[in-house]
TrEMBL record:
The keyword Ubl conjugation does not apply. The chain crosses the membrane at residues 29-51, 71-92, 164-185, 197-222, 242-262, 274-298. It holds the Pfam family Solute_trans_a. It is found in: Membrane. The keyword Membrane applies. GO terms for cellular component: membrane. It is a multi-pass membrane protein. It comes from Hemiselmis andersenii. PANTHER family: ORGANIC SOLUTE TRANSPORTER-RELATED (PTHR23423). InterPro entries: Ostalpha/TMEM184C (IPR005178). This is Uncharacterized protein. Keywords: Membrane, Transmembrane, Transmembrane helix.
Length: 324
């Protein structure tokens, strides 16, 4: 009889691998990636409006200041993102000091650009001084309202200009001192040392004086600014937010860390850097909002509507010698 057929071996089933559950990356990496997208959005928003101004460069005396103010938010957001990234990738820590120095220097330049934009939009400092001389006497803003008011005209313009420009000079000097102190190993670039605390306190005092004098100028020249610009309050507010909001926010957070968190722990641990990192993450988000508002309130098609005074009209020789 024929041999029985050989059984066909069945293919062996390979053991099925259990699918691995999806594991989210660490929270700090997700936050770092989102902050990176925010920084890209800030740069895209600012560059888009700068491109529009460059294509319609019909008022260079004003638009050059507008273009300069557009880059404050991207520089501030970039410095904040690099600060966050340095907690993840330590070699980036060497770039933080340079970016903070660039941010502080450009912060002073932005305040100067805002001053020049406001005064040039109403015909220059001499024309604005002449309008003040014909205006009613204005009181000083709170909390200095109890002091004798500055005389409308030369004294008001000179004091407001001095208060704003002292910030423009003081901020770069303090930034260079912090940079040199960090390079010499005298500080770690944060508010965890007495030297950093002292320098940041001086910078905060200078910023308060500059902001007060800028608000005083806008108050006494409100009619002229309203006649020349649309939404002058928002124009000043968005640039002031780009310069001073994140500055005071970072100062407040670091003061809280230095005075409340560190005395209870007696050492700088991860929780301190988490607090600083979260604050820097919110800076990137805030700078995106600021960049959008700058894009909205500094449109390309806007031009000053106030008639300019003839050269030297109503301006004393004393004023002319100071501002020219």
């Amino acid at each position: 009889p024929p041999p029985p057929p050989r059984p066909v071996p069945l293919p062996r089933e390979l053991p099925r691998e259990t699918p691995k559950p999806f594991v989210w990356p660490p929270v700090h990496l997700i936050a770092l990636f989102i902050a990176f997208l925010l920084v890209l959005a800030v740069w895209a928003t600012a560059c888009y409006n700068v491109y529009k101004h460059s294509q319609a460069f019909e008022a260079p005396d004003l638009q050059r200041h507008i273009i300069a103010m557009h880059f404050m938010a991207p520089i501030h957001a970039t410095a904040a993102w690099v600060c966050i990234a340095s907690f993840v990738w330590v070699p980036l820590g060497a770039a933080v000091s340079y970016l903070i120095l660039l941010r502080d220097l450009y912060m002073a330049f932005t305040v100067a650009s805002l001053w020049w934009f406001l005064t040039d939009s109403v015909g220059g400092e001499k024309a604005l001084t002449a309008r003040m001389e014909r205006s009613e006497q204005a009181q000083l803003l709170f909390p200095l309202s109890f002091l004798p008011p500055w005389t409308m005209g030369f004294e008001m313009m000179f004091n407001c200009r001095l208060g704003v420009m002292q910030f423009v000079v003081t901020m770069p000097v303090l930034a260079l001192l912090r940079f040199c102190a960090h390079g010499l190993g005298l500080s770690d670039g944060t508010l965890f040392s007495p030297l950093d605390l002292a320098l940041c306190t001086l910078a905060a005092a200078s910023a308060v004086v500059g902001l007060y004098c800028l608000a005083q100028l806008c108050t006494v020249s409100w009619d002229s600014l309203s006649a020349a610009l649309s939404s002058p309050l928002w124009k000043v507010s968005v640039v002031a937010a780009a310069v001073w909001l994140a500055f005071f926010q970072g100062l407040l957070v670091r003061l809280v860390v230095s005075m409340i968190v560190l005395p209870t722990k007696w050492q700088i641990d991860d929780s301190v850097y988490v607090i600083v990192g979260v604050e820097q993450w919110f800076v990137t988000l805030e700078m995106l909002v600021v960049a959008i508002f700058v894009n909205v309130y500094y449109p390309v098609d806007e031009s000053p509507r106030a008639p300019l005074l003839p050269k030297g009209e109503g301006v004393s020789t004393k004023t002319f010698s100071v501002f020219v």
